[in-house]
Inverse folding.
């Protein structure tokens, strides 16, 4: 049978272990919160980049449509012939 002093010592060791466990858990929670805040910041940044990318893609599509329109107008002008003497036509395919 354990003496009173041995039981107190065991109890003190158990309390110390519980304190260490709580301290470790608190450190983990702080680190988790820091990582969560960092991830939220990165998510905001990615969302802003996504919005900018979509805007750039819309601008690119508009520029591409304008380029296509101008190219078709140029091709039609080649089919009409030259802008000078003679009636030479260019065959574009």
């Amino acid at each position: 049978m354990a003496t009173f002093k041995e039981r107190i010592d065991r109890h003190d060791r158990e309390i110390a272990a519980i304190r260490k466990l709580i301290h470790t858990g608190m450190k983990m929670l702080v680190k988790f919160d820091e990582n969560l805040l960092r991830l939220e910041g990165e998510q905001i940044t990615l969302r802003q980049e996504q919005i900018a990318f979509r805007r750039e893609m819309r601008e690119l599509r508009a520029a591409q449509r304008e380029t296509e329109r101008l190219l078709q107008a140029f091709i039609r002008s080649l089919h009409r012939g030259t802008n000078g003497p003679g009636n030479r036509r260019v065959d574009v395919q």
The two ends are 104 Å apart (CA to CA). The chain has a mean pLDDT of 91. Helices lie at 4-80. Residues 48 and 57 are 14 Å apart (CA to CA).
